[in-house]
Design brief:
Number of strands: 14
Shape: globular
Order of helices and strands: EEEHEHEEEEHEHEHEHHEEEHHH
Number of helices: 10
Distance between the termini: 29 Å
Largest sheet: 10 strands, mixed
Length: 300
């Protein structure tokens, strides 16, 4: 089974308008509400690709209940821990000129609730996959990913980590199956500019030497680069399509790569499906749907 963890989920209230720079009363052209959070995004795209997962994490208040309702409606299995206090956050995304993201703080996660999450994770079995994605609330220790991976280090579990900075760098010693920095995050990790593919590949190999099994580097509109466990460097472009939305594109790439690998065991196919999935979300107002992923897969 695949498990995803979202420490700080959200309801993303997305609004579209022509121009908000003039201020005053602005009439929105349309509005949508999406479930937000990197782990949740991975679960939703995995579902589109035919893979079941169980979404874990924390929710609170009436907004948290709405997240659970929407996941159930989408057919996503979940076992979120309901916090006693606070509210799952609402983020406001304004698609306009300029584009604005208003991201709220999430609820405090108490020690008892965190202990419940560890109990859930410790019940995982050999052969399972665990996706740890995104930032963590300020109330949690900054080594929480390390704590999780250390607890599970005695089991044969594929760990996928999509995080930044020390949160990612400090878990490499636990040999995650896959990490997915973008090129700017990779520059931060290695402490230097990476002007071309060769420099990016060399930096990815450095992270492999520190423990990562596979390093997938997302390059935005330029595609992606993979250094796999055998040391092979693969570079792929993107299908030609209009950029509509950047939210969730990286999470979609993680979901597509994982689905492709679990389906075939072939890294080349996993890279292709991951890139198509990321591109399909970038070309959609919400997360990618299967039909759009498949159409882009045939164009790459």
């Amino acid at each position: 089974m695949i498990y995803t963890v979202t420490f700080n989920p959200a309801l993303d209230y997305t609004l579209w308008a022509d121009d908000i720079s003039k201020g005053g009363v602005i009439r929105m052209e349309k509005q949508e509400i999406f479930c937000g959070g990197k782990g949740i995004n991975v679960s939703l795209v995995l579902k589109e690709l035919g893979f079941e997962s169980i979404a874990l994490g924390f929710v609170a208040g009436f907004t948290g209940q709405e997240v659970l309702r929407r996941l159930d409606e989408a057919g996503i299995q979940s076992d979120f821990i309901c916090l006693k206090n606070g509210y799952t956050r609402i983020n406001v995304k304004i698609k306009s000129e300029p584009e604005v993201d208003l991201n709220a703080a999430g609820p405090d996660i108490d020690e008892e609730s965190l202990k419940c999450l560890f109990e859930q994770l410790c019940a995982m079995k050999d052969g399972d996959c665990l996706v740890l994605a995104g930032s963590i609330p300020k109330t949690l220790p900054d080594n929480i990913y390390e704590q999780i991976m250390e607890k599970l280090s005695g089991k044969d579990i594929k760990m996928i980590v999509d995080a930044t900075g020390k949160l990612l760098g400090n878990v490499l010693k636990y040999r995650p199956f896959l990490i997915k920095p973008n090129n700017f995050e990779l520059e931060e990790l290695v402490g230097r500019k990476l002007p071309d593919d060769q420099a990016i590949a060399e930096a990815a190999m450095e992270l492999q030497q520190k423990g990562a099994v596979n390093v997938l580097v997302s390059l935005g509109g330029d595609g992606a680069l993979l250094v796999d466990e055998y040391g092979k460097v693969s570079r792929i472009g993107v299908a030609p399509c209009e950029m509509v939305n950047s939210v969730g594109a990286g999470d979609s790439m993680v979901a597509g790569f994982l689905a492709g690998y679990l389906k075939t065991g072939d890294y080349a196919y996993a890279l292709k499906l991951g890139t198509a999935s990321g591109g399909a979300t970038a070309n959609s107002e919400g997360l990618a749907k299967r039909e759009r992923i498949e159409s882009l897969l045939n164009l790459i």
